[in-house]
Amino acid sequence: MDLRYNIIEDMNKEHGTMTKDNHAALWHGRFEEGPDAAAVAFETSINVDERMALDDIKGSKAHAKMLARAKIISDDEAKQICDGLDSIEKDLTSGKLKIDYSAEDIHSFVEATLTDRIGEAGKKVHTGRSRNDQIALDERLYLCRFIPDLQNRILTLISALNEIAEKHLNDLIPGFTHMQHAQPVTLAHHVCAWSWMLTRDWNRLEDALKRIRISPIGSCALAGSGLPLDRKFEAKELGFDEITMNSLDSVSDRDYCIEVANDLSMIQMHLSRFCEEVVLWSTVEFGFIDLSEKWSTGSSIMPQKKNPDFAELIRGRTGRVYGDQFALMTMMKGLPLAYDRDMQEDKFNLFDACDVVLSCVNVFTYMISSAKWNTDVMEKACEGGFLNATDVADYLVRKGMPFRTAHGVSAKSVRMAIDKNCRLEDLSLEEFKSCSELIEKDIFDLITPKACVDARKTDGGPAGEKVMEQIKALKAFAKQVK
I want to staple 219 with a disulfide (CB 3.0 to 4.6 A). Which of 133, 381, 390, 465 is the partner? Predict the structure, then answer.
């Protein structure tokens, strides 16, 4: 036997031979033979889409109400369907009812369970819809639940960062470009930068919801229905703002999944960048941050180690989220209209990206909230690396010197300090004057790290009062959107 045969044989042993008498697929009527067990195992999706059970139930209840309103089924039948669906939801939530993994997908499971409970009326729930528009609806309903939850977790993280910023409003830390000392800022200013990135992540998700809250149900397989369906009523029942305008488009695209995956990739990218800094700052060489032992790990061979594994795992899982996004785009790139079975694969990558990002946001929040900041070490790091060189140039600009000339004077003073192996502030007044006669004794009060930060009072700058404005704005953002 070749490898392929072995795999098929193993699947047959596990699942048995399927016939029409087994758990029949919704489409089985056209076929004389039941599907091969290996075929069933390969094409079923219930292990992935089971998490949409409550969304499928919600959609089915709204559909039953619409069918009754359109006089396609009776009010009594609609009530039987809704009551039956309520009982399924209750039993699933309590754990009394377990998912039947022999079902083809979550739609088949819900409909079969409903029919078992209420009889013939259950067979009418699928009137005027297809699994093509049903899955598009379920995914949208799921994302309408997931996104607000993730947004709330992002707000929690922003609040945690705000607390750090308020506590360290005046604690200095080197600012970097190219990973080289650049200019002094404060820890509060740096942490607020993280928060502003997260506000944009929140807003991107909010914007995505506008395109997700559009109901595709009633588009059926691809060409709508000959029955008098009231799509707008059903959309309103589901809390959607509008309906899709083209039945082909409704079932043919997964751009809303790809958009969310892109937004999730952006969030994960930001978290990864934050974690890169945490990893660097927790090294002996930096020593800026001391992670809690609850959010660190050790080594199996080196007893002294305290590793930032959780920051590294968040950074590492970013590749998974990027991969999920790319998988979705690749899946869709060559598909003709309308529905193709390739699109069944969207849920695995969408749900994986959702799960990874949600867990990473939570873990980062716990990790950063419990960390301790070594403010003395951070402030001392601001004393080297000539972080005040730009302030020497600014000093001369205030005295009327063109900036480009002032830049050259400051660079000359830096060269002098390098040759003497000292800091800029350790140069004598005479040495400064050899670079420019405009320099007076007051320069020494203006090029300390604290003075450099306090001078930067432009909007968005690191001066304490300006950072406090940022913190207030971030708090207002969180309060406004909740």
Answer: 133
